[in-house]
Design a protein that fits this description.
Layout (H helix, E strand, L loop, with lengths): L6 H13 L8 H4 L15 H10 L3 H10 L2 H7 L5 H8 L6 H9 L5 H9 L7 H9 L5 H8 L4 H9 L5 H15 L1
Length: 183
Amino acid sequence: MSDELTPEQVAELVEQIDRGTDPYQLPPELIEEPEPAKAPAPDEGEGDHSLYYYILKMTVGEKLKLALRGNRDARNILIRDPTRMVARFVLQNPRITDDEVVAIARNRNLDAEILRIIGEHREWSHHPQVRAGLVTNPKTPVAVALRFVGTLNERELRLLAKSKNISSAISSSAKRLLMQRAG
């Protein structure tokens, strides 16, 4: 399968994955969530490294399936995949947690499209840490960030007003809100 898929091919692939008739077989350790209390054994030092290279060699179709069904470790790697569609599918994984979304919202290396999707998601946009992460992330589209500036607390607004790492529109909006709340 080539690196580029048409929308029709993606729709067919998602339908096949949902039915369980897709041609991709993924190892169970990439699908099942690891036990939270389990500490890595001393000889497991390169587990993430080998997982990264395993995912790197996958086709786009395999990555899409893994993004929809994969565990936390796979999601953390796939969210940074250069294929935008793969990262969007990670956000559609039903097992993605609020903590993961907060980390994604704060990640300054991600595509603005991913941050826009998070900002438009009804459930995630109600989470205060997600809103703060989006507003302080310089890659977040200005329109999305401006929607959430008014929801931040005074301490966060003071930091925004002084920040040089964000858009001047967001910084000036934070200053304006601070003056309104003070007066």
